[in-house]
Write a structure and sequence with these properties.
Layout: E1 2-9, H1 13-24, E2 29-32, E3 46-47, H2 49-54, H3 59-63, E4 69-71, E5 73-78, E6 84-87, E7 93-95, H4 98-108, E8 112-114, E9 122-125, E10 128-131, E11 135-142, H5 149-153, E12 164-172, H6 175-179, E13 189-192, E14 198-205, E15 208-215, H7 221-234, E16 247-251, E17 262-263, E18 266-268, H8 284-301, H9 307-321, H10 328-335, H11 338-348, H12 352-364
Parallel strand pairs: 1-2, 1-11, 2-8, 5-13, 11-18
Antiparallel strand pairs: 3-7, 4-7, 5-6, 9-10, 10-11, 12-15, 12-16, 13-14, 14-15, 17-18
Helix pairs in contact: 1-4, 1-8, 8-9
Length: 373
C-alpha cells in the first residue's frame, strides 16, 4: 500500500505545476499518469513569457537540448483573406515541443512519479481516497484533461459538453521539406474560419512543423481540416505532402465550461476543469496558473480538504479567469446571426490595429494579464 498527502492524476503542465508548488511547501505529492514520459500531446505548442516567469524557468537552461523557438510576431487572416503581419521586434512567445516541455516540468516537479498507470478504481474510505486499491491519499487533484476520470467523479459528462475539437500534426522536416515551406519560424500563421467558430495554424519551430485546426464543431471538423490543408498547398505555404497520422483531441473553453471543480477531498485543474481561453483555445497558461492556484488553496487548507474549505480555490479561479466569460466579442457573437458576425469579423481581420491589439494582444497573448506572483 502506497500513500501520499496529495495524489495528482495527470502529469501535464497543470498537474506538474501544482506538484512543483506543493513540493516547495513540503507536501508529499505523487503524480499518476496512464502514459510514460516523454509522450506526444496534441497542441500547437507555444508559451508566453508569463509562463516562464510563473514557473521560474531559466530560458538558457531550458533550451539546452530542447526546442525553444523565439516568436517575434504573427501573420493573421481569415482563410483565403488578406494577411496581416504584426511585428513586435522582440520575443513575445516561444515555440516548444510538448513532448519535451511536459517531460521537463514533470521531472523538475519533485513529485514521486507513477507512470503507465491508468485509473481503474477510486473509492472513498472515511476521509481518504483509495485509488486502484493501492494508493491512499487525503486529496486527489484531477489534471488528466477533458476526459479526466476525476472530473467524471465530480459529475462531468465530457461527451455531452460543447467542446472544441482539433486535429494536428507535428513532425521534423527534412532538408527538402524545409526548402519548400515558406512559413517563417519567428512568425507563426493563424487563419480564422469564415464563421469564426475556429481557426487553423501553421507554426515552424526550428526544423519542426506544426499544423492544425480546431473548431467548436466536432461534426464538421474533418471537412474543415481537409480544406485548410488544401489551402496551405495552393498558397505555397507548405508545398509537399504531409506525413500521415493527424491526431485529434477535445477540450472545453472557459465560456462553455460548467464543471464542478471541487468536492470533498478533490479538485480539478487545467483542461479537466475546462479553463482554456475562450477566444484562442490556448490551454497551457490557464493549466499552469490553475495548478499554482490549486496548490495555494491546498497549502492554505492545512489538511482540511473538505469542499467547504476548498471553496477558496473556486474563488481564486473566478477572480483570475472571470473576465473570460464577459469578453465583449463573445457577448456580441451570441446575439448576432452567424452571417452578420462573420461579415463583421472578416472586415475586422483586415485591420492591422484590430489584429494586433485585439486578436493578438488580448485573445492570444493576454498581454494585459500579469503573471501570477
Amino acid at each position: 500500500m502506497d500513500s501520499c498527502d496529495v495524489l495528482i492524476v495527470g502529469g501535464g503542465p497543470a498537474g506538474s505545476s501544482c506538484a512543483w508548488s506543493l513540493r516547495r511547501a513540503s507536501l508529499d505529492t505523487a503524480i499518476l499518469d496512464r502514459c510514460s514520459f516523454p509522450r506526444d500531446k496534441v497542441c500547437g505548442g507555444w508559451i508566453t513569457p508569463a509562463v516562464l516567469e510563473e514557473l521560474q524557468i531559466d530560458i538558457e537552461e531550458y533550451r539546452r537540448g530542447r526546442v525553444l523557438q523565439p516568436i517575434t510576431g504573427f501573420r493573421t487572416s481569415s482563410i483565403g483573406g488578406p494577411e496581416i503581419e504584426t511585428d513586435y521586434a522582440t520575443p513575445i512567445s516561444y515555440g516548444i515541443r510538448r513532448c519535451e516541455f511536459d517531460e521537463y516540468l514533470l521531472a523538475r516537479s519533485g513529485a514521486r512519479l507513477l507512470p503507465s498507470q491508468p485509473i481503474k478504481t477510486i473509492e472513498r474510505t472515511g476521509d481518504s481516497w483509495l485509488v486502484n486499491s493501492q494508493i491512499k491519499t487525503r486529496l486527489i487533484v484531477g489534471a488528466a484533461g477533458h476526459f479526466c476520470p476525476v472530473a467524471r467523479l465530480l459529475g462531468a459528462g465530457a461527451r455531452s459538453e460543447v467542446a472544441v475539437a482539433a486535429q494536428e500534426i507535428e513532425f521534423e522536416m527534412d532538408a527538402a521539406q524545409r526548402e519548400r515551406c515558406t512559413v517563417r519560424a519567428e512568425l507563426p500563421e493563424l487563419f480564422f474560419c469564415a464563421d469564426m467558430k475556429g481557426y487553423g495554424w501553421c507554426f515552424r519551430k526550428q526544423n519542426f512543423l506544426n499544423i492544425g485546426l480546431g473548431r467548436l464543431d466536432q461534426q464538421g471538423l474533418p471537412k474543415h481540416v481537409s480544406s485548410f490543408l488544401e489551402f496551405l498547398k495552393k498558397t505555397g505555404k507548405v508545398e509537399f505532402e504531409l506525413p500521415p497520422g493527424m491526431k485529434g483531441h477535445a477540450y472545453l473553453i472557459y465560456r462553455e465550461a460548467h464543471r464542478k471543480v471541487i468536492g470533498d477531498g478533490v479538485l480539478l485543474v487545467g483542461d479537466a476543469a475546462g479553463l482554456a481561453y475562450s477566444q484562442s483555445g490556448e490551454g497551457i497558461r490557464p493549466a499552469i496558473e490553475s495548478g499554482l492556484l490549486a496548490a495555494k488553496s491546498i497549502v492554505a487548507a492545512n489538511t482540511d480538504y473538505s469542499e467547504n474549505t476548498l471553496t477558496s480555490y473556486r474563488r481564486l479561479l473566478e477572480s483570475h479567469f472571470g473576465s473570460a466569460k464577459d469578453d465583449w466579442s463573445t457577448a456580441i457573437g451570441r446575439r448576432l446571426p452567424t452571417s452578420v458576425m462573420s461579415a463583421i469579423a472578416q472586415l475586422l481581420l483586415t485591420s492591422g490595429w484590430f489584429s494586433r491589439h485585439v486578436v493578438l494582444d488580448r485573445w492570444f497573448l493576454h498581454r494585459d494579464v500579469p503573471a501570477l506572483v
